[in-house]
Amino acid sequence: xxxxxxxxxxxxxxxxxxxxxxxxxxxxxxxxxxxxxxxxxxxxxxxxxxxxxxxxxxxxxxxxxxxxxxxxxxxxxxxxxxxxxxxxxxxxxxxxxxxxxxxxxxxxxxxxxxxxxxxxxxxxxxxxxxxxxxxxxxxxxx
Length: 142
Fold this sequence. Notes:
This protein has about 140 residues and is α+β, with helices and mostly antiparallel strands.
C-alpha cells in the first residue's frame, strides 16, 4: 500500500487515502494521535500529572512587581511545555522543569530569576546563594 493523499482531519487525526500497489484498490484510513499524559516526578518521589498552570503560578510569584508582562509569562510556560513534549518522555522530574523555567527567566529578568531559583533550588546557606548571584554576571547557569 502506498499513500496517495493525506490531510488533517478532526481533532488530532489525519485522513489518508491509500492504494494497493498490486490490485490498485483504494482505501481510506483515519489515524489518531495518541496523547500520552506527562507525569512529573517530584523531589519526594511522588508522581502527578503535568500542569502548565503550576509553571505559570511559579513564574508569577517570581515576577511579582517586576516589569514582566503576562504575555511573557505565558510564552515562557508554553515554551517549557513544548520542550518537555518534544523530549518524547512520559515522565519528567520537577528538577528538569525547574531548570527549563530558570533558564528562560534568566534571559527575561535577572531579579525574577534569582527569586525563582532561591525557592526552587532551596539553597543550603548564604554562600551558595551568593555564588549563584555572582555567577550570573559571568553567564554561568548551574
